[in-house]
Amino acid sequence: MIIDAHDLDATAAYKLLIGSIVPRAIAWVSTASREGVGNVAPVSFFTAVGRKPPMVSITLQPRSDGVTLKDTLVNIRETGEFVTNLASLPQAHQMHQSAFEFDSEVDEFEALGLEKAPCKTIRAPRIKGSPISFECVVDRIIPVGSGGENVVWGKIEHFHIRDDLYLERGRIDTAALAAVGRLAAEYTLVSNVFTTPLDAAVLESYENRRMTRLDGHGTDWSPIDTAEWSPSGASTNPETEEAR
To answer: How many CB atoms lie within 10 A of CB 140?
Structure first.
């Protein structure tokens, strides 16, 4: 199958991107408005972009109406700061719900039952219980294309790492994270590790094998086929909300 990208609308292109770029790390982004209202949002268009200084990027689409800017981007523009928090399995459902389009005056920490933790030098709060958080200040905001998307580059001012995860020589104990990643419109638990080469018998055992599900759905089920899914990563149902 060869698909001409020029023939795709934003929704079709988004489906191909999120289903092909897997697994994606999730930045569970916390911000505060100028008035101090807390906001939380999962962003899976997220990666590292530099080492010195350490920098990350997040890409934010408009709300589900395709026009209105999400509160995360508004807060970042107005305050120049944000936090990326790691989503681990115990907080996966709250992370999932945090993509719901709350009204701007609602403190989403309170709405989702999350606790705030202070940062060292920025006003935006961290998510208490997240194993790793980066407090960031804005380096640049880059508009992308004609779909209303914006890429935010953030310079990391401080790393917040749970003590038991910080190993000798500055390593992170990744095997202890229970990190959650993004597969299309679903999630994956990072639960195995390997180095190469693998034994031929191991490779053969995985040939044509489908992933196992932890949620009881059929192996061919996908949220993309439901009415609640949106290519903005948002819907009006907090129980079935999709990460951006």
So the answer is: 11
